[in-house]
Amino acid sequence: MLGFMYAAGGLLAFWLSEQLLRVGSVVILVVVALFIAVGLDPGVQWLQRRGLGRAAAVLVVISLVLVALVLFFVALVPVISDQVTALVNNAPEWFQQLQRNRQIQDLDDRFHVIEKAQEFVTSGQWASSLFGGVVGIGVAVLGFLVNTFLVTVLTLYFLASLGRTKQALYGLAPASRRARVTELGERILASIGGYVSGAFIVAMAAGISSLIFLFIVGLGEYAVALAAVVTLLDVIPMIGATLGAVVVTAIGFATDPRIGLSCLVFYVIYQQLENYVIYPRVMQRSVNVPGSVTVIAALIGAGLLGVIGALLAIPTAAAVLLLFREVVVPRQAAR
Hints:
By secondary structure, this protein is mostly helical. The chain has helices spanning about 1-20, 25-50, 55-100, 100-110, 115-125, 125-130, 135-160, 160-170, 180-215, 225-235, 240-255, 255-285, 290-335. It is globular.
């Protein structure tokens, strides 16, 4: 009988794990929405401190988020689409410029790399192979829009009911420890909110500075698209800023070696400024995580959940470190 119970328990656990894997994408959307809602909550609290009620403050923040989304899709997306099209149309000329380089020409004579890459880009097969054809592109775009809509709706619901949700979760703790659990929970949520706000500020600083620099250096035709790429990639911890710099610098060198050199110098200087001045000052009040832990957490998160895991890794590491310092270390010291 004991063996039968253990076997039945193991089979039940296996079945539950399979069901969890099946709804894994939905769980990720819920976690992302909750993460964004916690990140927007400081804005709601700021408005509450200015005299607005909770409902009115949530309504203002939700309205601003919706207006920002509408402005992004209505104004920015067409510009980015046009400029990306211009980038693709100018790709053959860039390949011809690369062929004039003696070392690259020697490599191309041996392996025909540039010729194959030029045919691949100009033929449009990269989009088909990336998404599985025209139907695959439509499905990918539709899936992205559906996921964006679901995350937006869930974020609004979570933001509106965040106070009640927190109180319900804190109520699960024993009465003797509820005050301590509430204190630690509020500190963790404040850390997550500060991280989201800080990451947004750092990314916007990278995007705006890139936009200004690209207009000055002579890449104004692609400035909006490239600045948007830099802003989006800069949100990714550790490697996002470098990836954005590589993309812009490569296009700069393909356009004009002097422009490429200017891009290289600019991003080397800017990354030092971001790493040692902007990022520490923005994050020092919200996330207290050592640099080595940040690297390890980002790598583990990226390995588990890709870009989303990398985004969630740092605030998760901050929460774990907070619990370790406030709970585990005092208990060990008391023994």
